[in-house]
Amino acid sequence: MAEIEFPPMIDGHVHVRGVEDSANLAARLDATNAVQAGIACQYQDLAFNTNPAGFVLKAEHPGRFFLLAGLEHAGLLYGADAALPPAEQAGLLHAMGADGIKLLASKPTGRRRLGVPVDGPYFEPFFKTCEALDMPLLWHVADPEEFWEPERLPAWAREQGWGYDSSYVSKEDLYQETEHILERHPGLCVVLPHFYFLSADLPRAESFLTRFPGAHFDLAPGIELFYNLSRDVDRSRDFFIRFGGRILFGTDILSEHTIAEARHRAGIVYRFLAGDEAFRVPAGADFLLGPPEDGLIRGLNLPGDTLHDILQANFQRIYGGTPRPLDTDRARMECLRLAAIEAEVRGRPIDQTEGSRGARLL
Quick one: which of 78, 227, 283, 300 is 20 to 30 A from 327 by CA? Predict the structure, then answer.
């Protein structure tokens, strides 16, 4: 197979692990022709987050990276002195130049770790604040349905601890909590990664997007979504054309991926959208995409205007054409606040924390 020539794209869903990884991620996005990207800052054991790395990346590459900042829950989990409630964090992150917020509290592992529903009193002021600030959410809800079915759980998912028994909240309960929030806050703009894990049920996906006009899906693999959507290409193509203004390109590329792995991820998503052939996951892809023999992916051969919306225009409409400027002084203070939490909870010298390293780089 010939090397893919990527058009200019905006990758709405990438990750940077540490404050020294800025150049690594930028190089991987250069290799996929991602002219801009949304940095989804993740939890680290749900108490801390990768915001310091996101701040550094945004500061070192002005105009390229949109910061989708994470929350910390160290007050809820540990009673940490420097912790802040989610609503106050949202306000501070907006003031320092965050372009949105990454929310993982509805992933089953996160939901169980926190022990509180997202439609309960702990999160309600947060959603109200984000709605008032017009601050978009990249909100991971649920996981593939097979993760709750041991006989169908892929080996790569089992290795990540993503097999769920009855001690985890069900997929349906996670959807109900999410819909309660969207009903309560109709002004919220949310991007739901991995096609909201509804790729096996397009009628339900259609009903959901129709009911909630502020909701969007992204295409970051979840490789299962491409297998599911490949079962009926005509039906899937019709869906993508109808809802082309509500779907965003994303890859879940990590700063620690190799260049080849990053190109494989972007190539799978792009070939699915633009091509018309059947193909398999490349043999050199990272293990979270599973082995090539898992199945065939069939391209949708979408029209040019739909492709443009998915690859660029939808992201720009939601987040703007240019990232918000970073207030480096406020970002530095936030790094030091996270450093204090990490030092208290993990018993580390404060100058050895990720937050302290981020503050020095800023």
Answer: 78
